[in-house]
Amino acid sequence: MVKVDKTILLDTCLLAGRIMIEGGSEMYRVEDTMNRIVRNAGQSEPLIFTTATGIIIGLKNQPYVQLSQVSARNIDMEKVAGVNQLSRQFAEGKITLTQMRKSLIHLDKNTPYFPLPLQVLGAAVVSATLMVIFAQQYDWMDIPLAAVAGSLGYLVNYYVGRATKIRFMSEMLGAFIVGLTALIGVRLGLGREIDNVIIGAVMPLVPGVAITNSIRDMLAGHLLSGMARGMEAILSACAIGVGIAIIFRFF
Amino acid sequence: MTYLTEFIVQLTFSYLSTVAFAICINVPHKALILAGWAGAFGWMVYWLLETAGSGRMLANLLGAVAIGVCGIVFARIKKMPVIIFNIPGLVPLVPGATAYQAVRAMVLGNMDLAIQLGVRVTMVAGAIAVGFMIAQLISELSYRIRW
Q1: Domain enclosing residue A19, as ranges
Q2: Do residues A30 and A130 share a domain?
Q3: A116 in contact with B at a CB cutoff of 8 Å?
Q4: Number of domains in chain A
Q5: Which of A66, A169, B18, B129 could disulfide-link A10, Cβ–Cβ 3.0 to 4.6 Å?
Q6: 3-class DSSP state for residue B45?
Q7: pLDDT per residue over B28-48, tens digit each?
Q8: Contacts of residue B19 in chain A, CB cutoff 8 Å?
């Protein structure tokens, strides 16, 4: 077994864990991956404590402890898949610890994204198709309006999220734009049911998946993470609600 | 609209919505097609049960089981984490419409309806989570039986 620098080992572990939590992985998978990295590096008993806002890792009976803050929590599957793949390669001995660390830093900084036009197109398709699925009414006339409102909302969400650090602002403004577009569209006669249009168009922003995930975390015994993520999801749902509410109140 | 056309519309639309949402949350591109199938399969299980009159909770639960099982199978085929297929697959099932109606009722001052709908959202989310746990149980059992 190659001797490894324990400080670097713990640092790599923390990096992997942080990237996975930021990508929206389940907590048990984060702990499992960190555990595997430590064991594959030849250390026997890691002590790991993960929450949605921070990770602590140490080695049992040894003076090595490190902790890391997790400040952003999104859903980004590419990151989770990337860390998973690196961990597999490390387990098979294809890459060394330093190489893994370098790749992790690289992954953290430049995750490959789909080009923005494709994402916006995705948001438009999500809005249009989910409107039909959720409303369970086959109102084909509303599809173009839902697609336009959904993609505009997604764009606003994207750019506001980049421009400001204030949490939940991007969701609120995105939902506001969705509501405004739907309202104007319906008034102009481009759509019929404003409720259906908004339900569909707001779906790219809604944290439905995050709510379900947080309940899964809690059922798996990660009460702290489940609570933190659930609270965050509820807050962003409220932000979206406020954004839509403004439309309903004043127009 | 006949039952067959409805079936086809539901299938294509749930597939498309899953793939499109997968693009929004940056799923690796070689997993996109299978993720779409997970979503379409789960939604079809839900839709068939719901139209057969099983009730909302059971349909949600079994739909989530279907997505979970799909996710586990696809994850083994592609050697990727299960959630890459589960999270986009979940999108058609997520109680988005109910959540929206709850918020709308709250804004318009209709508190009773808002609470009623809010509780329903929580229960549907819980049913989906339990469905996933059952899927995980099935996968553990399948491991144990094979070895």
Answers
A1: 6-109
A2: no
A3: no
A4: 2
A5: A66
A6: helix
A7: 888 899 999 999 999 999 999
A8: 122, 125
